[in-house]
Specification:
heterodimer, A: alpha/beta, five-stranded mixed beta sheet, two-stranded antiparallel ribbon, 5 helices, 19% strand, B: Helicase, Ruva Protein, domain 3, 2 domains, elongated
Chain lengths: 176, 147
């Protein structure tokens, strides 16, 4: 009996040790919070762009949407700024939609950032409470959500977006 | 006259008490939520922009008459159970809650088993040496003398 107990304890300890090493070396980045919204319908929102136009997400149903949360004070947002604009220039004429929501940012700072990086896609501030970003479970900026033609969130990318991230979503739809 | 002043005082300070109660509720709920930006802290402790937004949202929802459960559910629906600093005691989470106690119990059992074995090993039993024929004869002789 005692021997069986020791074997059981050994097995449990080994299992825990294996879990520990898995978590340490092979599991996903613990800083990256898994979104509870992947595969769900994207929350609709209405806001006014910096250019003064009313923007409602649901008006783009039937088109793939790249929804990016950013801020002028965010370094990684600078890294991805020109790339987002370049992909907007390439894919918006083909039917894609690029939206950037500035969060926790001063309006003037956001406008300065837009001018500096020559951003021309749909750009709007979040509301005072940050309802749009809270509804998307945003954890940090930049964070980008990919919404398919049916209005479902297919996946998200935390941190500066890369060409590979954008290609994965857009090239299959429109070609390179 | 005093009664009127007292009534007026209560009337004027009532909003302050209500605000304090609301602040306390916001703090209690915010303490249960993990800050998404600086993950080692609760939303209550964090001053990150998103955590501040979350505190404002909690206050708004309380003012709308939402319960604590409804507010926590709002955040869990968007961030997943990860956002709760105390994961609910159900499903796979039960392993998290019970494993430490199980490990301590098992370690205790191991110590008991080890100590028992050790004490059993230490108590050396003297080897039983049978009486030889001469000793047997002497005992027999002495016994006969007694009887």
């Amino acid at each position: 009996m005692n021997k069986q107990l020791l074997y059981l304890g050994g097995a449990v300890s080994l299992g825990l040790l294996a879990l520990f090493f898995y978590g340490l070396f092979f599991a996903s980045d613990p800083q990256e919070i898994p979104s509870a919204l992947i595969g769900t319908q994207a929350q609709d929102f209405t806001t006014t762009t910096f250019a003064g136009e009313t923007l409602t997400l649901s008006q783009f149903r039937g088109k793939p949407v790249v929804l990016n949360f950013w801020a002028s004070w965010c370094v990684a947002c600078r890294q991805e700024a020109r790339l987002m604009e370049a992909y907007h220039q390439r894919y918006t004429p083909q039917g894609a939609v690029f939206i950037g929501i500035a969060i926790n940012d001063e309006r003037e700072a956001s406008l300065g950032f837009i001018r500096r990086y020559g951003k021309t896609y749909l750009l709007a501030p979040d509301d005072a409470t940050g309802n749009i970003s809270l509804n998307y479970g945003v954890t940090a900026v930049p964070e980008t959500f990919f919404i398919n033609e049916q209005g479902k969130i297919t996946h998200k990318v935390l941190g500066a977006i890369t060409e590979a991230d954008l290609d994965k979503f857009l090239s299959s739809r429109f070609g390179t | 006259m005093k009664a009127v002043f007292l009534l007026l005082f209560c009337f004027w300070t009532l909003p302050l008490w209500a605000d304090e109660a609301m602040d306390q509720q916001v703090r209690e709920i915010a303490h249960q939520l993990r800050c998404p930006t600086c993950q080692a802290m609760s939303v209550k402790e964090s001053e990150a922009g998103l955590a501040s937004n979350m505190k404002v949202k909690i206050r708004e929802m309380l003012q709308e008459g939402k319960s604590e459960e409804e507010i926590l559910k709002f955040f869990v629906d968007r961030y997943g159970e990860w956002i709760l600093r105390n994961p609910p005691k159900k499903g796979v989470n039960l392993i998290l809650w019970t494993a430490p106690f199980g490990l301590v119990l098992f370690a205790g059992l191991g110590v008991v088993v080890y100590l028992r074995r050790k004490s059993a090993g230490n108590a050396v039993q003297p080897a039983l040496k049978p009486l030889n024929a001469q000793e047997k004869a002497e005992i027999e002789k002495d016994l006969n003398q007694i009887t």
